[in-house]
Structure prediction request, 334 residues.
Amino acid sequence: MATTQLPPPAPAPTPPAAPPSRRRRHSSLGRLVASRLRDAVIVQFLVVVTIFVIGYYVGDPVSAFAPPEATEEQLAQLRRSLGLDEPFWVQFGRYLEDLARLDVGTSVWQQRPAMDAVWEVIGNTVLLAVLGAIAAAAFGILGGVLAGTRPGSLTDKVINLVTVLSLSVASFWIGLLLIIIFAVRLDLVPTSGWYEWRGLILPVATLGFIHGGRICQVTRSVVLSEMSKPYVLVARSRGLPWRRLVAGHILRNVAATVLTTAGWEFARMFGGSIYPIEVVFAWPGLGPLMTTAAHRHDFAIVEAAVLITGALVILVNLAVDVASHLLDRRLRPE
Prediction:
């Protein structure tokens, strides 16, 4: 009896390969992230070395906390108990070993791990910085678009004057001025604290005004440059609605530049500009904690705060670089 031979099964279809442009884009993004992480490790190590050297050579926490009647023998015994009498390299090696376990030492002032004291208030600082960045971006982008699309007008002149003031005056002075006007004279908001949501209004407004000025100037500049390009003239001659032209074309083309500026301002808050605002408005964040710790020569808390804020600055800059890479069409391979 003849047997019927079945044809061999058809080979499974192979999935289509990713387009070369997408592969190149992912490769370039991976190289960008890898290079930024490498630089971040180097920067963070330099920060670690710098704050340890400053803490080692500046001030004496034992003298700051010892009673006035303490003798030299008692001071020496306290230094030995804290390990402050050992040579520089011994202390630095122990510092790096503890740092690998996220331990920067015990706060002499609060008598608890310094990292715990910082983690307790870092959330308040991040909350204020995020709200301040949102306010700064809203003020900067809206003002920049209004000024850039109406060059030479009264609106443009007023916005330019406001941005120059925001970049020229000290942040704590703006905060004090807002307290005098809106809290003392008009009694609309509390002067300080965080016991109710209204306590956020003045510090957020101060951060938005101070950091929104540069965003506004950069946005105005790139919008004004974009307005002079031929496609804008062609779109207007064809009757494209003005709002659609601005929102759908001009803002899309300048988004990478504006985002980079806004991200840099956000990182600059953690770099130190937010701390005087926290002190002025008695906001329970890193600013008052670091100020008190520095006055008491409690460098363990200062070191912990600088390490965490340094990591935040690095993360924000990395996120901005990745977002700019994804938004900027000039960085996308064809």
